[in-house]
Amino acid sequence: MKVRVYDKENNMYFKSQVFAKINAGWFEKQLVLVPSEDGGYLKFFDYLDKSEPTNCPVLINTITPDIPKEWITLKSPNSETQLADYVGLIDREVKFSEFIGYPWIIENKDTVVKLLNGEAITYKGSIFDNKISVSNDPEWNYIEIQNDIDYLMEKAHGFHDSVINGFNYTSGASVDSKCVMYPMAKFKKIVMLIESQCCKPIEMVFEGVVALNLRTPDDNYSADMFDASLFLKDAMIYFSDCYLEDIDLTYDGTWLTAYSLRWRFKEYA
Q1: Contact residues for 161 (Cβ-Cβ < 8 A; gap 6+)
Q2: pTM (two decimals)
Q3: Average pLDDT of 205-233?
Q4: From CA 158, how far away is CA 135, in angstroms rounded?
C-alpha cells in the first residue's frame, strides 16, 4: 500500500509504504517508513489532521490501496477497549482497539509498544529490516526526483511532435449486480498513452490522481503537441500538454496532478 504523507511536525511531504494501520475513523494511524539515505525510520502518523476538526484534512493520501495478502485484522470488542494482549503494557489513554497489518509486527510487543508511545524505530537492524520489499517494479520507470523527469524528457524528446492517443480513468468506486454502491474512490488512476514521431509510444500511469483538466482540440485544429511540462513538488506530479514555466492550475489546456507517475515505452500495435 503506497501513500503520500504530510509530516506536519517537520512540514514535509514524502512518499512511502504502509506497514500497518491501527484503529479506525477519527483515531486512525498508519505505520509508514520515513525514507532517508541511511534506511530511514518507521513511525505512526495520524491519518486525519485533528487540529482542524471542522473539515478533517487527510494527512496520508492513498496512491495504491492494495493490501498485502499476509495482513491480518485484530479487533477488541469495542472501540474504547484496548486489544487484550496489550492491556497493561500501554497507557490507558492510548487508543489501540484495532490492528491491521503483518502478524509478525503485532507479535513483537516491545516494538509495538514503543511505536504506540510515539517513538520512531530505525529501519536497519529492526524487525522490519529485510522483511518487506519496498522496491519498485523494474519494468517501469518511476518519477521520484528531478533527474527522473530529466531522463523522461530526454527519452521522449520533450514530447515534441506527439499526440495524446487516449486516457483510461479508474476510480475504484462501483455498484454491484445487486445495486449495492461502494462510493469510496480508493484507486484513482489514469493510464495515458502518448504516441510520437520521435520515439516509441509512451505509456504513463498516474496513480493517486487529484485533478484532471481535459481540453480536446476544436474540430478544425490538430491535436499534436510541440512540447509538454512535468513538475514534481511536495511529492506530487503535475503534467501539462504544453511548455509552462511553473505549475499552473489555471492553464486552459490539458493538465493533471497525481501523487505518483510511472512510465515505459510500448511496442507499436
Answers
A1: 196, 197, 198, 224, 225, 226
A2: 0.90
A3: 94
A4: 28
- 256: three-class secondary structure by DSSP: strand
Contact criterion met (CB below 8 Å) for 254 and 241 = yes
Residue with cell 517494479: 137
Other C-beta atoms closer than 10 Å to the C-beta of 54 total 5
Query: Grid coordinates 514534481 are at which residue?
Result: 232
Domain layout of the chain by residue ranges: 2-122, 141-265
Residues in the chain: 269
Res 52 pLDDT > 90: no
Mean pLDDT confidence for 13-42: 93
146 three-class SS: helix
pLDDT at 251 over 70: yes
C-alpha distances in Å from residue 114, one per residue of 43, 95, 120, 267:
10, 14, 8, 51
- Cβ count within 10 A of residue 31: 23
Query: What band does 133 get if pLDDT is binned at 50, 70 and 90?
Result: low
Distance CA 184, CA 228 (A): 32
Task: Compute, in degrees rounded to 10, the torsion defined by CA atoms 92, 94, 99, 103.
Answer: -80
Average pLDDT, the chain: 93
CA dist 104 → 34, 111, 116, 202 (Å): 20, 11, 16, 41
Write the DSSP assignment of 54-113 as a string of letters: TT--BSEEEEE-PPPTT-EEEE-SSTTS--GGGBTTB-TTS--SEEEE-HHHHH-HHHHH
